[in-house]
Design a protein that fits this description.
The chain is an alpha+beta fold. The protein has five helices and eleven strands; from the N terminus they run αββαβββααββαββββ. Strands 2, 3, 4, 5, 6 and 7 form a six-stranded antiparallel β-sheet that branches. It is elongated and about 85 Å long.
Length: about 240
């Protein structure tokens, strides 16, 4: 066999192999395009089983020790009041005392701010409660004026609500969202005269927790409402199936 015949033979073999690769590429491309992508939704409503609440109180005095002693008396009254309302001592947490120097300030004739002479100390402290007795702490937060009526300068914050079994709720929602997505995929395949093949990919969205029937916006990183005792959680699952 001469060199020209060998070259022709090699060229023909390369052409056949090339056709084989091209056929496989087309087959694989069509296979990748023959898929269904669907998104399922899982939701769950529940009631918070954990509440946190806090308030702050303060005293002003030109003498630091006197201010601290007065604040300590207020702290004692607040602690005894909370205990009288059925709050356990282990649930009551007092923060460290914050001390701020105060100065008499004014604006001069040119309108410039001027910090004047020292006028005394402002001492403040925060008390917080975490409890599973949600109704009790709710009632306490609404009637905290009883402390104010005792001559204590007290500022109450709004309660925050949480749920300790969120992991279980999330599992239930994932199962519901997966079922919803699969049913959608089966319906699409059925309507197109095909059958659902194997699952290729599953992508889970972030959990969104809002107040029921609210207009709260969903967040890309997830939303976690703490202002409502009643909550509604939702999550999405995106599934991609092959179609036979």
């Amino acid at each position: 066999m001469n060199k020209n015949s060998i070259a022709v033979a090699i060229g023909a073999l390369g052409f056949v192999i090339g056709l084989g690769f091209l056929g496989n590429a087309i087959k694989n491309r069509n296979k990748s395009e023959n898929t269904i992508s669907v998104t399922g939704l899982g939701t769950k409503q529940f009631t918070s089983d954990l509440i946190t609440w806090s308030g702050s109180f303060s005293k002003n005095n030109a003498d630091l020790k006197s201010a601290y002693d007065e604040l300590a008396l207020d702290r004692k009254v607040i602690n005894e009041y909370l205990l009288s309302k059925g709050i356990q001592q282990k649930e009551i947490v007092f923060s460290s005392v914050d001390i701020q120097k105060q100065f008499r300030s004014y604006n001069d004739s040119n309108g410039n701010y001027v910090q004047g002479e020292f006028s005394g100390y402002n001492l403040s402290q925060k008390v917080s409660i975490e409890s599973k007795e949600v109704a009790k702490i709710e009632n306490l937060s609404r009637n905290i004026t009883e402390i104010i009526n005792r001559g204590i300068e007290f500022t109450s914050s709004s309660p925050a609500y949480f749920y300790t079994k969120l992991a279980t709720v999330k599992q239930e929602m994932i199962a519901g969202a997966t079922k919803d997505a699969k049913e959608r995929a089966e319906k699409i395949a059925e309507n197109s005269g095909s059958s659902l093949g194997s699952l290729k990919k599953a992508t889970m969205g972030v959990i969104q927790i809002t107040a029921p029937n609210s207009n709260e916006d969903y967040s890309y990183g997830g939303t976690f409402n703490t202002s409502s005792k009643e909550k509604e959680a939702s999550i999405t699952i995106k599934l991609e199936y092959e179609v036979d």
